Structure formats: C-alpha cells, structure tokens
Amino acid sequence: MNLVEYKDTNELNPAFAERVAGLLKDAIKAKGCASLVVSGGSTPLPFFKALSQIELAWDKVTITLADERWVDADHKDSNTSLVKNNLLQNNAAVATFAEIKTSEASAFGAEASVTASLSGLPQPLDVLILGMGEDGHTASLFPCSEQIAEGFASDDLVIAVQPTTAPHERMSLTLKSLLNAQQIFLHIVGKSKKDVLDKALAADDKFEMPIRAILQQNDVPVDVIYTETKL
Ligand SMILES: O=C1O[C@H](COP(=O)(O)O)[C@@H](O)[C@H](O)[C@H]1O
C-alpha cells in the first residue's frame, strides 16, 4: 500500500484525474480498450468532474460501478445518477457505461441480469477506484451484512447485499472481482477517513473491516489517494 497525500482537494482532483487518465491511455494503447470501475458516495463528485474533462479516447473506455444502492435513478442516493451526471459528461460523454442497477424490484435475484450487463467490461479491470465508509466497508462489502462471508468467498462477479447499518439493498462487486484489477486506488478525503485507514492497517480481521481485504494483499498494487482538506 502506497499513501499519496495532497495539500487539499483542489490539488488532489486534477492530479488524480491525470493519473487515472494516464493508465486508461496506456491500456488503450496496449489493447485498444480500457475499463474503469468507480465508486459512489459523496467523495468522488469533484474528481469525476475533473476526469470528465480530460482528453482521451473515451469511446474505447467502459465504465462501471463497484457498487450501487438499489434505488431508482431519480433517488438522491443513486450512484448511477452520480456517475451519469458528473463523470459521463464533457469528453467522457462518449464512454460506454455498463449499469449495475437493473429493472428488478430487488437486488436479490438481479445478480444474473447485472452480470449480463457487465459482459462487455474488459477484464482484468484496468483501473478500480474504491471508497471507504467509516465502518471500513468498501464497495458494498459491509461488515454488518449477512452476505459478507459470501462476498469474500464467491467466484461470482457480483453479490446482492443488505446492510443493517446503512440504507438500501445493494449490488456489489465481490472481493474476487475487485481484486481482478491491474491498479486499485482508495480515494479518501478528511481526517476521519484517515483515522479509519489507520485502524484498518493496525489489525487484520477483514470481517471487522472489509477494506483490509484490499489493503492487506500483495497481488494488486493499491495507492491510497488522500487529502485531509476538502475545499
Ligand atoms: O455507500 C457507499 O459508501 C462508500 C463511501 O461513501 P462516501 O460518501 O463516504 O464517499 C462508497 O465508496 C460506496 O460506493 C457507496 O455506495
């Protein structure tokens, strides 16, 4: 794990966007296409705006989400709408978006249709950007959920999850899917998230803090992109 710290979000967002864009350009040069998996929540919004403005062959990039809350597109908690309204804009408007929210009423039973929606996603993933909750969840691998052991052990691409300490059913990439990446970034902003990171690094029970399964592995490089100061 490599910690990359910035003075503030005004410095972090363009620099992180250039770093991600560089990796996507390298992948396109090497194989003609690239995959980018992003997270939702509140942290990535200004970074999405910065990334959307970078010039690259976005028509060769497939974007998807590491997880989604099972809500309609017009719900304020929709990660899909966050991506559509902030990342799939400007130069990035021509990227392909593989959605992980489908029309089923429940996430439970929708795994097959979500897996089908992801069938065109180039794998291994070129860039995976994760967030982290105060409870140490990442994607929607929640420590509180009944599905956490299966989320760690499953060979499937996605898993439906019902958190008990956060709202909404979720659809999440499984741990195996998340680790099928060339480069992982953990994007965190603020001292409280840094405290969670430090706690995650201080012990090894991944069921207590699922982010440990990402941080404490040696197969995929992980850069933590961090600033304490949100402007
Ligand atoms: O519920 C979720 O939370 C995490 C962290 O979100 P943030 O608001 O603290 O940035 C996020 O990474 C995940 O995609 C989201 O569904």
UniProtKB/TrEMBL annotation:
Keywords: Hydrolase. CDD domains: 6PGL. It is an enzyme of class 3 (hydrolase). Residues 8-217 form the Glucosamine/galactosamine-6-phosphate isomerase domain. It catalyses: 6-phospho-D-glucono-1,5-lactone + H2O = 6-phospho-D-gluconate + H(+). Pathway: Carbohydrate degradation; pentose phosphate pathway; D-ribulose 5-phosphate from D-glucose 6-phosphate (oxidative stage): step 2/3. PANTHER family: 6-PHOSPHOGLUCONOLACTONASE (PTHR11054:SF0). Belongs to the glucosamine/galactosamine-6-phosphate isomerase family. 6-phosphogluconolactonase subfamily. This is 6-phosphogluconolactonase. It comes from Saccharobesus litoralis.
